[in-house]
Write a structure and sequence with these properties.
With 250 residues, the chain is an alpha+beta fold. 16% of the residues lie in helices and 18% in strands.
């Protein structure tokens, strides 16, 4: 945040994409029509985070590795409350500068033509016209997912979303599989958008190819569809588990 302030940045955006709960960390409780009705006609699995696990480790399986391109429009934000006057769900809808009226902008521009608005940024200017109705925020940036921060979106999936998972998670195209089956940590595949090519795997992983798209199966059972953040498992999960009083995994 201090670095951002030095760059005249008062709103930090974090790219967002719902992560998948890792199949290997779930309880494997199978539910069917007899217990859930038509919602689970093709069998479901209970996606609840086990009591001895955290959301952080269970949902540590992203659709892409950083830097992510296939993201949702509803990014998350950190912002300065003295600059953002109104925030609605995901968006900074009113800021100090966007709230300035015509006379305020003209007055600010007259005082300093190079640094014409409060808080060190540009206000509503275009060429020699210091005020315009169309406003573009000048004090916002997306964080660098490699060198600054990556947000893991751990929103829960519900039981109904896992219907037919036994088949959906074994197909070459796993778009309908809501459960996470991680690629090998050292896989050279950068993201799903690259059509999974090339992929390097160890002996227990099998490369499949269909319609020019490569995918991977674990022990010839499941098709890999997401990527773990190694730093989360290595550094942050142990800290969180310790803070919550969980036993350390052996």
């Amino acid at each position: 945040m201090k670095k951002a302030e030095g760059e005249d940045i008062y709103i930090l955006n974090f790219k967002s994409k719902r992560a998948k709960p890792r199949l290997d960390l779930l309880n494997k409780t199978i539910l069917g029509k007899e217990t859930r009705g038509n919602d689970c006609w093709h069998k479901c699995i209970d996606p609840s985070v086990p009591v001895d696990r955290t959301f952080l480790e269970t949902y540590n399986c992203d659709y892409e590795r950083p830097v992510r391109k296939n993201v949702m429009p509803a990014e998350k934000q950190l912002y300065r409350t003295d600059y953002v006057l109104l925030h609605f769900v995901h968006y900074s809808t009113i800021t100090v500068i966007s709230a300035m009226g015509h006379e305020e902008v003209i007055s600010a521009a007259a005082k300093d033509s190079h640094n014409s608005c409060m808080m060190g940024g540009q206000c509503k200017r275009r060429r020699n016209h210091p005020f315009m109705r169309l406003y573009k925020e000048q004090h916002v940036k997306y964080v660098d997912e490699i060198s600054e921060a990556t947000m893991l979106h751990t929103k829960s999936i519900v039981i109904e979303e896992t219907s037919n998972w036994l088949k959906a998670c074994k197909r070459d195209d796993t778009a309908n599989c809501k459960l996470g089956i991680p690629f090998p940590p050292k896989s050279t595949t950068l993201n799903m958008a690259s059509k999974l090519s090339p992929v390097k795997v160890d002996k227990k992983w099998t490369i499949l190819e269909a319609d020019g798209v490569k995918s991977v199966q674990v022990d010839n059972k499941w098709t890999a569809n997401c990527f773990e953040h190694v730093e989360i498992d290595k550094d942050w999960v142990p800290l969180l588990r310790d803070a919550m009083g969980f036993k350390t995994d052996s």
